[in-house]
Amino acid sequence: MVTEEPTKLLYKRVLLKISGEALMGQREFGLDPATINRVAEEVKQVHALGVECCLGIGGGNIFRGLAGASQGMQRASADYVGMLATVMNALAMQNSLEQIGVHTRVQSAISMQAIAEPYIRRRAIRHLEKGRVVIFAAGTGNPYFTTDTAAALRASEMGCEALLKGTKVDGVYSADPKLHPDAQRYEQISYNEALMKRLQVMDSTAFSLCMDNKIPILVFDMLQPTNVRDAVLGKRIGTLVTD
């Protein structure tokens, strides 16, 4: 594996949280193969720098538990359907990474041994130490928790130095920029300020986990090429949420 000087890296181990919406590309539903392949190439570039990478995958491009519950489904059942959607996305991402020579392991919080390993913390850490990319699927395995919370939990368990949240928005805004064109974009904000202002970065459980474990959150546009690489090199992109 080709590596650069470690002093150039801001983070040595990160969790990249990829929302399901970011995997849709310009589609309105499902997976866009071109987008998945592009994201895989970016992960490969970061991995080649010597960064230990794990991925947390959302499922909103296929099914969202809260949306299902609002349409009459029982919340727990809807959340389980959403967890299965994340497994589909994780397998698609694994396929793209393996095709370009990046060794990966998918670990699922819901046991399905025919297609994924069960989530075992020590095994996941060992995979990272051996230079593999670990993809976490099925959230926490429990209903009523979002994939953002799952990402914050796994980042804490893996000892990650940062949680990189790739979305379709280029940072954290004071209001929804699609509805409020004059909304302010923050370059940096504290956990407490984000919580008090109820900014839509992550849910409060995910925020609390990162705040308690002192894991900075970088929110950025996943659709912009090189953003993942720029993030681990410490370049100014998106919004940094930290102490």
How far is it from the N-terminal to the C-terminal residue, by CA? 34 Å
- Overall strand count: 11
Order of helices and strands: EHEHHEEHEHEEEEHHEHE
The largest sheet has its strands arranged as: 4-3-5-2-1-6-10-11-9
Give start-end ranges of low-pLDDT stretches. Answer: 1-7
Number of separate structural domains: 1
Total of helices: 8
Overall 3D shape: globular
Reading off the top of the CATH hierarchy, the class is best stated as Alpha Beta
Chain-averaged pLDDT: 90
Helix content: 25-40%
Structural class: alpha/beta
Walk me through the structure.
The protein is α/β, with parallel strands linked by helices. The protein has a single domain, classed as Carbamate kinase (3-Layer(aba) Sandwich), CATH 3.40.1160. Helix content is 37%, strand content 19%. The chain has 8 helices and 11 strands. Strands 4-3-5-2-1-6-10-11-9 form a 9-stranded mixed sheet, with helices on both faces. Strands 7-8 form a two-stranded antiparallel sheet. The N and C termini lie far apart (34 Å). The N terminus is likely disordered.
Essential attributes:
243 residues; alpha/beta; 9-stranded mixed sheet; two-stranded antiparallel sheet; 11 strands; globular
